[in-house]
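Final paragraph of the annual report: two paired records, presented back to back.
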Amino acid sequence: MKALITTFFLILFTSISFASSVLNLTINGGNSFIVNLNGRDYQTASTIRFSNLHAGRHTISVLQQNHNYSSTIFNGFVDINSGEELFATIRNGQLFVNDQPGFNQNLNSGFHSSVGMNRAVFSQLKRETAGAFDSKRRKLIVDYTLRYGISSFQAKQLLTQFSFDSGRLETAKQITNRVVDRENYWTVGETFSFRSNKQTFLDYLNSNVPAQTENCIPRPNPYGNNNYNYSPLGMNQNAFQILQRSIQDEGFDSNKKKQIIAVVKQGRISAQQMTTLLKEFSFDSNRLATAKSVIPYISDRENYWIAGETFSFSSNKNNFLKALE
Protein backbone atom coordinates (compact mmCIF):
# COMPACT_ATOMS: atom_id res chain seq x y z
CA MET A 1 0.00 0.00 0.00
CA LYS A 2 2.84 2.38 0.89
CA ALA A 3 4.52 1.64 -2.43
CA LEU A 4 1.24 2.32 -4.26
CA ILE A 5 0.83 5.71 -2.54
CA THR A 6 4.44 6.62 -3.34
CA THR A 7 3.94 5.70 -6.98
CA PHE A 8 0.73 7.77 -7.13
CA PHE A 9 2.42 10.90 -5.79
CA LEU A 10 5.40 10.38 -8.09
CA ILE A 11 3.11 10.25 -11.10
CA LEU A 12 1.18 13.30 -9.85
CA PHE A 13 4.38 15.29 -9.29
CA THR A 14 5.68 14.34 -12.73
CA SER A 15 2.45 15.38 -14.44
CA ILE A 16 2.48 18.75 -12.67
CA SER A 17 6.18 19.41 -13.32
CA PHE A 18 5.88 18.64 -17.01
CA ALA A 19 2.36 19.88 -17.67
CA SER A 20 1.79 20.99 -21.25
CA SER A 21 1.09 24.63 -22.00
CA VAL A 22 -1.39 26.40 -24.26
CA LEU A 23 -1.12 29.49 -26.46
CA ASN A 24 -4.26 31.21 -27.74
CA LEU A 25 -3.29 33.60 -30.53
CA THR A 26 -5.50 36.26 -32.14
CA ILE A 27 -4.30 38.24 -35.17
CA ASN A 28 -5.86 41.59 -36.03
CA GLY A 29 -5.97 43.32 -39.41
CA GLY A 30 -7.04 40.63 -41.85
CA ASN A 31 -8.74 37.28 -42.35
CA SER A 32 -6.11 35.01 -43.89
CA PHE A 33 -2.79 34.25 -42.19
CA ILE A 34 -0.08 31.61 -42.05
CA VAL A 35 1.34 31.24 -38.53
CA ASN A 36 4.74 29.56 -38.27
CA LEU A 37 5.24 28.19 -34.77
CA ASN A 38 8.60 26.52 -34.11
CA GLY A 39 9.08 25.79 -37.81
CA ARG A 40 5.61 24.43 -38.59
CA ASP A 41 3.03 26.35 -40.63
CA TYR A 42 -0.64 26.72 -39.64
CA GLN A 43 -3.38 28.36 -41.72
CA THR A 44 -5.87 30.50 -39.80
CA ALA A 45 -8.46 33.22 -40.32
CA SER A 46 -7.79 35.26 -37.20
CA THR A 47 -7.70 33.04 -34.09
CA ILE A 48 -5.77 29.85 -33.44
CA ARG A 49 -5.12 27.71 -30.36
CA PHE A 50 -1.85 25.81 -29.82
CA SER A 51 -1.99 23.10 -27.16
CA ASN A 52 0.48 20.57 -25.76
CA LEU A 53 3.37 23.03 -25.93
CA HIS A 54 6.55 22.49 -23.94
CA ALA A 55 7.65 25.10 -21.43
CA GLY A 56 10.22 27.58 -22.76
CA ARG A 57 10.66 29.79 -25.80
CA HIS A 58 8.62 29.37 -28.97
CA THR A 59 9.43 31.20 -32.20
CA ILE A 60 6.51 32.79 -34.02
CA SER A 61 6.22 34.42 -37.42
CA VAL A 62 3.01 35.49 -39.11
CA LEU A 63 2.48 35.89 -42.85
CA GLN A 64 -0.57 37.86 -43.97
CA GLN A 65 -2.08 36.67 -47.24
CA ASN A 66 -3.77 39.05 -49.66
CA HIS A 67 -5.09 38.52 -53.17
CA ASN A 68 -1.92 39.43 -55.04
CA TYR A 69 0.85 39.32 -52.44
CA SER A 70 1.88 38.15 -48.98
CA SER A 71 3.79 40.02 -46.28
CA THR A 72 5.33 39.19 -42.91
CA ILE A 73 3.58 41.17 -40.15
CA PHE A 74 5.29 39.66 -37.10
CA ASN A 75 8.49 37.83 -36.34
CA GLY A 76 9.44 37.14 -32.73
CA PHE A 77 8.98 34.73 -29.86
CA VAL A 78 6.96 33.98 -26.75
CA ASP A 79 8.06 32.34 -23.48
CA ILE A 80 5.57 30.03 -21.75
CA ASN A 81 5.77 28.47 -18.30
CA SER A 82 4.91 24.84 -17.64
CA GLY A 83 1.14 24.30 -17.48
CA GLU A 84 0.43 27.92 -18.40
CA GLU A 85 -2.28 29.13 -20.78
CA LEU A 86 -1.53 32.43 -22.52
CA PHE A 87 -3.90 34.64 -24.49
CA ALA A 88 -1.94 36.73 -26.98
CA THR A 89 -2.83 39.20 -29.73
CA ILE A 90 -0.77 40.43 -32.66
CA ARG A 91 -1.65 43.90 -33.85
CA ASN A 92 0.33 46.61 -35.61
CA GLY A 93 3.34 44.32 -35.85
CA GLN A 94 3.63 43.69 -32.11
CA LEU A 95 2.72 40.88 -29.74
CA PHE A 96 0.47 41.68 -26.77
CA VAL A 97 -0.06 39.44 -23.75
CA ASN A 98 -2.22 40.77 -20.92
CA ASP A 99 -2.63 43.83 -23.18
CA GLN A 100 0.96 45.04 -22.69
CA PRO A 101 3.02 46.18 -25.72
CA GLY A 102 6.38 44.70 -26.55
CA PHE A 103 9.04 44.93 -29.21
CA ASN A 104 9.86 41.38 -30.18
CA GLN A 105 9.21 39.53 -26.99
CA ASN A 106 6.82 37.62 -24.80
CA LEU A 107 4.79 39.86 -22.52
CA ASN A 108 3.83 37.60 -19.65
CA SER A 109 3.95 39.74 -16.52
CA GLY A 110 5.29 37.09 -14.15
CA PHE A 111 8.42 37.39 -12.01
CA HIS A 112 11.59 37.20 -14.11
CA SER A 113 9.52 36.59 -17.23
CA SER A 114 10.66 37.89 -20.60
CA VAL A 115 8.66 41.10 -20.14
CA GLY A 116 11.11 42.23 -17.48
CA MET A 117 9.15 44.28 -14.97
CA ASN A 118 5.40 44.03 -14.85
CA ARG A 119 3.37 47.18 -15.43
CA ALA A 120 2.89 48.09 -11.77
CA VAL A 121 6.56 47.68 -10.86
CA PHE A 122 7.75 49.58 -13.93
CA SER A 123 5.35 52.46 -13.27
CA GLN A 124 6.61 52.69 -9.69
CA LEU A 125 10.22 52.81 -10.87
CA LYS A 126 9.45 55.54 -13.41
CA ARG A 127 7.86 57.65 -10.69
CA GLU A 128 10.86 57.22 -8.41
CA THR A 129 13.41 58.08 -11.12
CA ALA A 130 11.49 60.97 -12.68
CA GLY A 131 12.76 63.70 -10.35
CA ALA A 132 15.99 62.12 -9.16
CA PHE A 133 19.61 63.01 -9.88
CA ASP A 134 21.43 60.76 -12.33
CA SER A 135 23.35 58.99 -9.55
CA LYS A 136 20.11 58.13 -7.77
CA ARG A 137 18.46 57.09 -11.05
CA ARG A 138 21.30 54.72 -11.75
CA LYS A 139 21.07 53.06 -8.34
CA LEU A 140 17.27 52.69 -8.55
CA ILE A 141 17.36 51.23 -12.07
CA VAL A 142 20.12 48.78 -11.23
CA ASP A 143 18.41 47.66 -8.01
CA TYR A 144 15.03 47.12 -9.68
CA THR A 145 16.63 45.39 -12.67
CA LEU A 146 18.56 42.97 -10.52
CA ARG A 147 15.31 41.96 -8.84
CA TYR A 148 12.85 41.92 -11.73
CA GLY A 149 14.82 41.97 -14.97
CA ILE A 150 14.07 44.55 -17.66
CA SER A 151 13.07 44.68 -21.33
CA SER A 152 14.77 46.81 -23.98
CA PHE A 153 11.60 48.84 -24.35
CA GLN A 154 11.58 49.63 -20.63
CA ALA A 155 15.32 50.34 -20.49
CA LYS A 156 15.03 52.80 -23.36
CA GLN A 157 12.32 54.76 -21.55
CA LEU A 158 14.34 54.94 -18.34
CA LEU A 159 17.62 55.89 -20.01
CA THR A 160 16.02 58.87 -21.73
CA GLN A 161 15.50 60.40 -18.27
CA PHE A 162 19.23 60.88 -17.68
CA SER A 163 20.65 64.39 -17.89
CA PHE A 164 24.13 63.30 -18.97
CA ASP A 165 25.43 60.64 -21.34
CA SER A 166 28.04 59.44 -18.84
CA GLY A 167 25.43 58.17 -16.37
CA ARG A 168 23.29 56.86 -19.20
CA LEU A 169 26.18 54.84 -20.62
CA GLU A 170 27.31 53.33 -17.33
CA THR A 171 23.75 52.36 -16.43
CA ALA A 172 23.09 50.83 -19.86
CA LYS A 173 26.24 48.72 -19.57
CA GLN A 174 25.58 47.71 -15.97
CA ILE A 175 22.10 46.28 -16.64
CA THR A 176 22.99 44.52 -19.91
CA ASN A 177 23.06 41.02 -18.44
CA ARG A 178 19.59 41.48 -16.93
CA VAL A 179 17.91 42.51 -20.20
CA VAL A 180 15.45 39.80 -21.17
CA ASP A 181 15.37 40.51 -24.92
CA ARG A 182 19.00 41.14 -25.73
CA GLU A 183 18.38 40.95 -29.48
CA ASN A 184 16.57 44.30 -29.16
CA TYR A 185 18.85 45.99 -26.63
CA TRP A 186 20.92 47.75 -29.27
CA THR A 187 17.97 50.12 -29.77
CA VAL A 188 18.82 51.99 -26.55
CA GLY A 189 21.83 53.34 -28.43
CA GLU A 190 19.41 55.90 -29.85
CA THR A 191 19.12 57.52 -26.41
CA PHE A 192 22.69 58.87 -26.39
CA SER A 193 23.33 62.51 -27.17
CA PHE A 194 26.85 61.92 -28.50
CA ARG A 195 27.67 59.44 -31.24
CA SER A 196 30.91 58.46 -29.51
CA ASN A 197 28.94 57.18 -26.52
CA LYS A 198 26.60 55.26 -28.80
CA GLN A 199 29.61 53.59 -30.42
CA THR A 200 31.09 52.78 -27.00
CA PHE A 201 27.81 51.14 -26.02
CA LEU A 202 27.65 49.11 -29.26
CA ASP A 203 31.26 48.02 -28.80
CA TYR A 204 30.33 46.83 -25.32
CA LEU A 205 27.41 44.79 -26.70
CA ASN A 206 29.70 43.40 -29.38
CA SER A 207 32.02 42.02 -26.72
CA ASN A 208 29.19 40.67 -24.54
CA VAL A 209 27.22 38.30 -26.73
CA PRO A 210 24.44 36.46 -24.85
CA ALA A 211 24.73 32.76 -24.20
CA GLN A 212 22.07 30.31 -25.37
CA THR A 213 18.80 31.05 -23.61
CA GLU A 214 18.11 28.64 -20.74
CA ASN A 215 15.05 26.37 -20.71
CA CYS A 216 14.62 27.00 -24.42
CA ILE A 217 14.42 24.46 -27.21
CA PRO A 218 15.64 26.49 -30.20
CA ARG A 219 14.61 25.87 -33.76
CA PRO A 220 17.41 23.90 -35.45
CA ASN A 221 19.70 25.88 -37.70
CA PRO A 222 20.44 24.00 -40.93
CA TYR A 223 23.96 25.44 -40.85
CA GLY A 224 24.77 23.86 -37.50
CA ASN A 225 25.06 27.07 -35.46
CA ASN A 226 22.30 27.37 -32.88
CA ASN A 227 22.89 30.98 -31.89
CA TYR A 228 20.51 33.04 -29.78
CA ASN A 229 16.93 33.42 -31.08
CA TYR A 230 17.29 31.82 -34.49
CA SER A 231 14.60 32.84 -36.93
CA PRO A 232 14.45 32.10 -40.67
CA LEU A 233 12.95 35.54 -41.29
CA GLY A 234 15.67 37.55 -39.60
CA MET A 235 14.80 40.64 -37.60
CA ASN A 236 11.37 41.86 -36.61
CA GLN A 237 10.44 44.37 -39.32
CA ASN A 238 9.88 47.20 -36.83
CA ALA A 239 13.35 46.65 -35.38
CA PHE A 240 14.87 46.49 -38.83
CA GLN A 241 13.36 49.82 -39.83
CA ILE A 242 14.91 51.41 -36.74
CA LEU A 243 18.28 49.88 -37.62
CA GLN A 244 18.04 51.02 -41.23
CA ARG A 245 17.36 54.62 -40.20
CA SER A 246 20.25 54.49 -37.75
CA ILE A 247 22.62 53.21 -40.44
CA GLN A 248 21.48 55.93 -42.83
CA ASP A 249 22.30 58.54 -40.19
CA GLU A 250 25.88 57.29 -39.85
CA GLY A 251 28.41 59.27 -41.85
CA PHE A 252 31.25 56.72 -41.86
CA ASP A 253 31.30 53.16 -43.15
CA SER A 254 33.33 52.07 -40.12
CA ASN A 255 30.53 53.12 -37.77
CA LYS A 256 27.94 51.42 -39.96
CA LYS A 257 29.92 48.19 -39.78
CA LYS A 258 30.29 48.37 -36.00
CA GLN A 259 26.59 48.91 -35.48
CA ILE A 260 25.49 46.16 -37.85
CA ILE A 261 27.81 43.59 -36.30
CA ALA A 262 26.78 44.55 -32.77
CA VAL A 263 23.12 44.12 -33.70
CA VAL A 264 23.33 40.82 -35.58
CA LYS A 265 25.46 39.24 -32.86
CA GLN A 266 22.53 39.70 -30.47
CA GLY A 267 20.09 37.94 -32.81
CA ARG A 268 19.90 37.33 -36.55
CA ILE A 269 19.19 39.07 -39.84
CA SER A 270 17.80 37.85 -43.15
CA ALA A 271 19.63 37.92 -46.48
CA GLN A 272 17.23 40.52 -47.89
CA GLN A 273 17.56 42.76 -44.82
CA MET A 274 21.36 42.58 -44.90
CA THR A 275 21.41 43.30 -48.63
CA THR A 276 19.37 46.44 -47.99
CA LEU A 277 21.86 47.63 -45.36
CA LEU A 278 24.90 46.92 -47.54
CA LYS A 279 23.56 49.39 -50.10
CA GLU A 280 24.10 52.15 -47.53
CA PHE A 281 27.90 51.74 -47.64
CA SER A 282 29.99 54.24 -49.58
CA PHE A 283 32.93 51.99 -50.46
CA ASP A 284 33.07 48.46 -51.81
CA SER A 285 35.94 47.45 -49.52
CA ASN A 286 33.91 48.26 -46.40
CA ARG A 287 30.82 46.67 -47.90
CA LEU A 288 32.77 43.46 -48.56
CA ALA A 289 34.29 43.31 -45.07
CA THR A 290 30.88 43.76 -43.46
CA ALA A 291 29.10 41.30 -45.75
CA LYS A 292 31.64 38.59 -44.94
CA SER A 293 31.65 39.32 -41.19
CA VAL A 294 27.93 38.68 -40.77
CA ILE A 295 27.72 35.42 -42.73
CA PRO A 296 27.35 33.26 -39.57
CA TYR A 297 24.34 35.36 -38.48
CA ILE A 298 22.31 35.29 -41.72
CA SER A 299 19.12 33.35 -41.03
CA ASP A 300 18.64 32.17 -44.63
CA ARG A 301 22.15 31.74 -45.96
CA GLU A 302 20.88 29.95 -49.04
CA ASN A 303 19.58 33.34 -50.22
CA TYR A 304 22.52 35.47 -49.17
CA TRP A 305 24.08 35.36 -52.64
CA ILE A 306 21.75 38.25 -53.55
CA ALA A 307 24.01 40.57 -51.53
CA GLY A 308 26.59 40.12 -54.28
CA GLU A 309 24.53 42.46 -56.43
CA THR A 310 25.40 45.39 -54.14
CA PHE A 311 29.08 45.46 -55.16
CA SER A 312 30.37 47.96 -57.68
CA PHE A 313 33.31 45.80 -58.77
CA SER A 314 33.05 42.23 -60.00
CA SER A 315 36.23 41.27 -58.14
CA ASN A 316 34.57 42.13 -54.81
CA LYS A 317 31.44 40.26 -55.82
CA ASN A 318 33.47 37.16 -56.65
CA ASN A 319 35.37 37.49 -53.37
CA PHE A 320 32.07 37.59 -51.49
CA LEU A 321 30.54 34.63 -53.33
CA LYS A 322 33.68 32.59 -52.65
CA ALA A 323 33.31 33.30 -48.93
CA LEU A 324 29.81 31.79 -49.07
CA GLU A 325 31.06 28.47 -50.43
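The closing record of the year follows.
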Amino acid sequence: MAKFCSKCGSPVDEGAKFCKSCGSPIASQPAQPQYDQQAVYDQQPVYAQQPVKKGLSKSAKIILAAVVAAVLIAVVIIIIVAVSGGSDKDDKDDKDGNSSSKSYEDVLEETLKAYVAGDFSGIFDNWLFGAYLKDICDAQGEDYSELRDEIKGESADVADEVEEELGKNCKVTIKITDKEKANADDIKDFESEIKDDWGVDISVTEGYVVYYEAKYEGDDDKITTDGEAELVKIDGVWKVYELDDDVATIDF
Protein backbone atom coordinates (compact mmCIF):
# COMPACT_ATOMS: atom_id res chain seq x y z
CA MET A 1 0.00 0.00 0.00
CA ALA A 2 1.54 3.45 -1.01
CA LYS A 3 2.77 5.82 1.68
CA PHE A 4 2.89 9.64 1.69
CA CYS A 5 4.75 12.18 3.84
CA SER A 6 2.50 13.43 6.53
CA LYS A 7 4.12 16.88 6.26
CA CYS A 8 4.55 17.69 2.57
CA GLY A 9 2.44 14.96 1.06
CA SER A 10 5.17 13.57 -1.25
CA PRO A 11 5.25 9.86 -2.03
CA VAL A 12 7.54 7.89 0.23
CA ASP A 13 9.22 4.60 -0.66
CA GLU A 14 8.35 1.49 1.21
CA GLY A 15 10.63 1.20 4.25
CA ALA A 16 11.98 4.82 4.04
CA LYS A 17 12.49 6.54 7.29
CA PHE A 18 12.74 10.12 5.92
CA CYS A 19 10.94 12.03 3.18
CA LYS A 20 13.11 12.63 0.11
CA SER A 21 11.43 15.95 -0.50
CA CYS A 22 11.34 17.67 2.90
CA GLY A 23 13.47 15.32 5.03
CA SER A 24 10.79 14.89 7.60
CA PRO A 25 10.84 11.59 9.44
CA ILE A 26 8.30 9.10 8.28
CA ALA A 27 6.13 7.90 11.14
CA SER A 28 5.55 4.18 11.10
CA GLN A 29 1.88 3.23 10.43
CA PRO A 30 0.32 0.64 12.67
CA ALA A 31 -0.44 -2.65 10.98
CA GLN A 32 -3.99 -3.09 9.94
CA PRO A 33 -5.67 -5.76 12.02
CA GLN A 34 -6.62 -8.92 10.18
CA TYR A 35 -10.03 -10.36 10.88
CA ASP A 36 -10.97 -14.01 10.68
CA GLN A 37 -14.20 -13.83 8.72
CA GLN A 38 -15.16 -17.39 9.63
CA ALA A 39 -14.62 -16.66 13.32
CA VAL A 40 -16.72 -13.54 13.03
CA TYR A 41 -19.45 -15.51 11.31
CA ASP A 42 -19.27 -18.21 13.93
CA GLN A 43 -19.69 -15.62 16.67
CA GLN A 44 -22.95 -14.36 15.22
CA PRO A 45 -25.91 -15.32 17.50
CA VAL A 46 -27.95 -18.20 16.21
CA TYR A 47 -31.72 -17.79 16.55
CA ALA A 48 -34.03 -20.79 16.75
CA GLN A 49 -36.43 -20.85 13.87
CA GLN A 50 -39.94 -20.28 15.10
CA PRO A 51 -42.67 -22.45 13.58
CA VAL A 52 -44.96 -20.58 11.25
CA LYS A 53 -48.56 -20.78 12.39
CA LYS A 54 -51.02 -21.38 9.61
CA GLY A 55 -54.81 -21.18 9.95
CA LEU A 56 -57.31 -23.52 8.23
CA SER A 57 -58.05 -22.74 4.64
CA LYS A 58 -61.57 -21.73 3.63
CA SER A 59 -62.23 -25.10 1.98
CA ALA A 60 -61.01 -26.96 5.08
CA LYS A 61 -63.34 -24.92 7.28
CA ILE A 62 -66.30 -25.77 4.99
CA ILE A 63 -65.47 -29.50 5.11
CA LEU A 64 -65.14 -29.38 8.91
CA ALA A 65 -68.49 -27.60 9.25
CA ALA A 66 -70.15 -30.19 7.00
CA VAL A 67 -68.75 -33.07 9.06
CA VAL A 68 -69.96 -31.49 12.32
CA ALA A 69 -73.42 -30.89 10.83
CA ALA A 70 -73.63 -34.50 9.62
CA VAL A 71 -72.72 -35.79 13.08
CA LEU A 72 -75.35 -33.59 14.73
CA ILE A 73 -78.02 -34.76 12.28
CA ALA A 74 -77.11 -38.39 12.94
CA VAL A 75 -77.40 -37.82 16.69
CA VAL A 76 -80.83 -36.21 16.28
CA ILE A 77 -82.05 -39.11 14.13
CA ILE A 78 -80.85 -41.65 16.68
CA ILE A 79 -82.66 -39.79 19.47
CA ILE A 80 -85.88 -39.59 17.46
CA VAL A 81 -85.74 -43.30 16.62
CA ALA A 82 -85.06 -44.17 20.26
CA VAL A 83 -87.93 -42.04 21.51
CA SER A 84 -90.39 -43.29 18.90
CA GLY A 85 -89.25 -46.91 19.04
CA GLY A 86 -92.53 -48.01 20.62
CA SER A 87 -94.61 -46.45 17.87
CA ASP A 88 -94.25 -49.34 15.39
CA LYS A 89 -97.34 -50.99 16.79
CA ASP A 90 -99.26 -47.73 16.57
CA ASP A 91 -98.19 -47.32 12.94
CA LYS A 92 -99.39 -50.80 12.15
CA ASP A 93 -102.66 -50.08 13.93
CA ASP A 94 -103.12 -47.00 11.78
CA LYS A 95 -102.67 -49.11 8.67
CA ASP A 96 -105.16 -51.67 9.93
CA GLY A 97 -107.76 -49.05 10.76
CA ASN A 98 -107.32 -49.40 14.50
CA SER A 99 -105.71 -46.09 15.40
CA SER A 100 -106.61 -44.78 18.84
CA SER A 101 -106.57 -41.26 17.36
CA LYS A 102 -109.68 -41.99 15.29
CA SER A 103 -112.98 -40.79 16.65
CA TYR A 104 -116.06 -43.00 16.76
CA GLU A 105 -117.48 -40.93 13.85
CA ASP A 106 -114.39 -41.78 11.75
CA VAL A 107 -114.67 -45.49 12.57
CA LEU A 108 -118.39 -45.54 11.71
CA GLU A 109 -117.87 -43.82 8.36
CA GLU A 110 -114.91 -46.05 7.48
CA THR A 111 -117.01 -49.13 8.24
CA LEU A 112 -119.84 -48.01 5.96
CA LYS A 113 -117.39 -47.21 3.16
CA ALA A 114 -115.79 -50.64 3.58
CA TYR A 115 -119.22 -52.27 3.20
CA VAL A 116 -120.07 -50.64 -0.13
CA ALA A 117 -116.54 -51.21 -1.46
CA GLY A 118 -116.46 -54.88 -0.49
CA ASP A 119 -113.40 -54.16 1.65
CA PHE A 120 -113.52 -57.09 4.04
CA SER A 121 -110.40 -56.03 5.94
CA GLY A 122 -111.88 -52.60 6.58
CA ILE A 123 -115.07 -54.19 7.91
CA PHE A 124 -113.32 -56.82 9.97
CA ASP A 125 -110.81 -54.44 11.55
CA ASN A 126 -113.46 -51.94 12.66
CA TRP A 127 -115.89 -54.49 14.08
CA LEU A 128 -115.65 -55.54 17.71
CA PHE A 129 -116.69 -59.01 16.62
CA GLY A 130 -113.68 -59.18 14.28
CA ALA A 131 -111.26 -58.18 17.01
CA TYR A 132 -112.44 -61.02 19.28
CA LEU A 133 -113.36 -63.60 16.67
CA LYS A 134 -110.56 -66.00 17.61
CA ASP A 135 -111.46 -65.79 21.30
CA ILE A 136 -115.13 -66.29 20.46
CA CYS A 137 -114.33 -69.34 18.34
CA ASP A 138 -112.18 -70.81 21.11
CA ALA A 139 -114.89 -70.19 23.71
CA GLN A 140 -117.69 -71.64 21.56
CA GLY A 141 -115.76 -74.37 19.79
CA GLU A 142 -116.22 -72.82 16.35
CA ASP A 143 -113.79 -73.05 13.43
CA TYR A 144 -112.15 -69.64 13.05
CA SER A 145 -111.25 -69.89 9.37
CA GLU A 146 -114.67 -71.20 8.42
CA LEU A 147 -116.54 -68.45 10.28
CA ARG A 148 -114.20 -65.78 8.93
CA ASP A 149 -114.77 -66.93 5.35
CA GLU A 150 -118.52 -66.90 5.96
CA ILE A 151 -118.40 -63.27 7.09
CA LYS A 152 -116.18 -62.40 4.15
CA GLY A 153 -118.71 -63.92 1.76
CA GLU A 154 -121.57 -61.96 3.31
CA SER A 155 -119.65 -58.68 3.02
CA ALA A 156 -119.01 -59.38 -0.66
CA ASP A 157 -122.75 -59.97 -1.17
CA VAL A 158 -123.50 -56.54 0.35
CA ALA A 159 -121.04 -54.86 -2.04
CA ASP A 160 -122.61 -56.65 -5.03
CA GLU A 161 -126.09 -55.51 -4.03
CA VAL A 162 -124.93 -51.90 -3.64
CA GLU A 163 -123.29 -51.95 -7.07
CA GLU A 164 -126.40 -53.46 -8.62
CA GLU A 165 -128.67 -50.77 -7.17
CA LEU A 166 -126.42 -47.68 -7.25
CA GLY A 167 -123.69 -48.52 -9.74
CA LYS A 168 -119.95 -48.63 -9.31
CA ASN A 169 -117.74 -46.22 -7.36
CA CYS A 170 -120.23 -45.70 -4.56
CA LYS A 171 -119.27 -42.90 -2.18
CA VAL A 172 -120.51 -42.58 1.41
CA THR A 173 -120.91 -39.54 3.63
CA ILE A 174 -122.55 -39.48 7.04
CA LYS A 175 -124.00 -36.84 9.31
CA ILE A 176 -124.48 -37.52 13.01
CA THR A 177 -127.99 -36.43 13.97
CA ASP A 178 -127.98 -37.53 17.60
CA LYS A 179 -125.99 -39.57 20.11
CA GLU A 180 -126.29 -41.03 23.58
CA LYS A 181 -123.24 -41.58 25.75
CA ALA A 182 -123.19 -44.75 27.82
CA ASN A 183 -122.94 -44.32 31.59
CA ALA A 184 -121.16 -46.63 34.01
CA ASP A 185 -124.19 -48.91 34.42
CA ASP A 186 -124.65 -49.16 30.63
CA ILE A 187 -121.03 -50.19 30.21
CA LYS A 188 -121.27 -52.79 32.97
CA ASP A 189 -124.41 -54.26 31.41
CA PHE A 190 -122.74 -54.34 28.01
CA GLU A 191 -119.68 -56.19 29.35
CA SER A 192 -121.98 -58.74 30.99
CA GLU A 193 -123.92 -59.17 27.76
CA ILE A 194 -120.72 -59.82 25.79
CA LYS A 195 -119.62 -62.35 28.38
CA ASP A 196 -122.93 -64.20 28.12
CA ASP A 197 -123.18 -64.09 24.32
CA TRP A 198 -119.57 -64.53 23.25
CA GLY A 199 -117.99 -66.14 26.29
CA VAL A 200 -115.14 -63.59 26.42
CA ASP A 201 -114.18 -60.90 28.92
CA ILE A 202 -113.72 -57.35 27.64
CA SER A 203 -113.12 -54.00 29.34
CA VAL A 204 -115.00 -51.03 27.88
CA THR A 205 -113.99 -47.47 28.77
CA GLU A 206 -116.56 -45.53 26.71
CA GLY A 207 -119.62 -46.18 24.62
CA TYR A 208 -122.06 -44.35 22.34
CA VAL A 209 -125.32 -45.05 20.59
CA VAL A 210 -125.12 -42.93 17.46
CA TYR A 211 -127.96 -41.92 15.14
CA TYR A 212 -126.90 -40.81 11.70
CA GLU A 213 -127.94 -39.96 8.17
CA ALA A 214 -125.96 -41.71 5.44
CA LYS A 215 -125.80 -40.69 1.79
CA TYR A 216 -124.80 -43.38 -0.71
CA GLU A 217 -124.02 -42.15 -4.22
CA GLY A 218 -122.90 -44.42 -7.07
CA ASP A 219 -122.41 -43.86 -10.78
CA ASP A 220 -126.05 -44.76 -11.54
CA ASP A 221 -128.10 -43.68 -8.52
CA LYS A 222 -128.02 -42.38 -4.96
CA ILE A 223 -130.02 -42.89 -1.77
CA THR A 224 -130.16 -41.45 1.74
CA THR A 225 -130.86 -43.64 4.75
CA ASP A 226 -131.19 -43.22 8.49
CA GLY A 227 -129.08 -45.52 10.59
CA GLU A 228 -128.18 -46.39 14.15
CA ALA A 229 -124.90 -47.73 15.46
CA GLU A 230 -123.52 -48.78 18.81
CA LEU A 231 -119.80 -48.18 19.29
CA VAL A 232 -117.52 -48.99 22.21
CA LYS A 233 -113.98 -48.03 23.10
CA ILE A 234 -111.64 -50.81 24.16
CA ASP A 235 -107.91 -50.33 24.83
CA GLY A 236 -108.17 -46.81 23.46
CA VAL A 237 -109.67 -47.96 20.14
CA TRP A 238 -113.23 -47.43 18.92
CA LYS A 239 -115.07 -50.46 17.51
CA VAL A 240 -118.51 -50.94 15.97
CA TYR A 241 -120.61 -53.36 18.00
CA GLU A 242 -123.98 -53.15 16.29
CA LEU A 243 -125.04 -51.48 13.05
CA ASP A 244 -128.58 -50.96 11.78
CA ASP A 245 -128.47 -49.56 8.25
CA ASP A 246 -130.63 -50.34 5.19
CA VAL A 247 -127.49 -50.61 3.01
CA ALA A 248 -124.62 -51.76 5.17
CA THR A 249 -125.84 -54.58 7.38
CA ILE A 250 -124.44 -57.98 8.22
CA ASP A 251 -126.06 -60.14 10.85
CA PHE A 252 -123.48 -61.63 13.15
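The first strand starts at residue 3 and ends at 4. This concludes the annual technical report; the extension proposal builds directly on these records.
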